[in-house]
Amino acid sequence: MLSQLAQEIFMTIVDKLRSLKLPADTLVSLRYEASCDVIHVRDEYVEETVSETGIADTVATLVVDSGLTVQTDHGDGFLDTLRADGLLEDYERGDFAFTDYVAGALTESFYDTGLIEYETKQYDYKRGLCTVSSNVRVPLSELLENPVSATYIGGWTTSVKTDNGVLTFD
Q1: Among 42, 59, 31, 30, which residue's Cα sits nearest to residue 130?
Q2: What digits encode the pLDDT tens for the residues 42-66?
Q3: Fewest 10 Å CB contacts: which of 15, 113, 118, 170?
């Protein structure tokens, strides 16, 4: 499924995290970021960036399929946040498309939930670069106990707080 090189990279991150000998309850911060060139004078350019970059699909895959307990950057359960906002109420159990449903909920409500953030760098009066990002946290113990889960963090920037500061892996 994953190339040998990809598996080695992911294992390297897990191995590096393991070598730090951090407490089991340490939270690992993950950040996913993607960008698109946009015409920012049009109202829908942020929605187009979310759609074109596939960020909602990437986040939903991590949250639903990885087997990791994913928290928001504020420490709340990611799915609990979506449930509290009423965004998962219409899902029909047994559809076997929960990942797609979560991605759709994120796409539709990213302005309201704050789970996907955006920033626009304006090149001139109409063109620019829109960057969308999502920040989550996962327990270190889960990454170490189930290295297969670590394959889902490919493309995410991984950071962890240590006694000597924040260590970041790209």
Answers
A1: 42
A2: 899 999 999 999 999 999 999 999 9
A3: 170
* DSSP secondary structure, 50-69, as one string: HHHHTHHHHHHHHHHHS---
The first and second tokens of residue 99, run together, are 């990942």
Dihedral pair phi/psi, residue 81, rounded to 5°: -65, -45
Structure-block tokens of residue 135? 């920040």
Pair 135, 30: CB distance under 8 Å: yes
- Closest by CA to 87, choosing from 67, 65, 110, 66, is 110
- If you write DSSP's letter for every residue of 153-167 in order, what string do you get? GTTSEEEEEETTEEE
CA 134, CA 156: separation in Å to the nearest integer?
9
Which letter does DSSP use for residue 40 in this model?
A: T
Mean predicted confidence (pLDDT) in 71-90: 94
Question: Does 127 have pLDDT greater than 80?
Answer: yes
Q: What is the pTM of this model?
A: 0.88
Bridge partners (DSSP) listed for residue 160: 167
SS3 26: coil
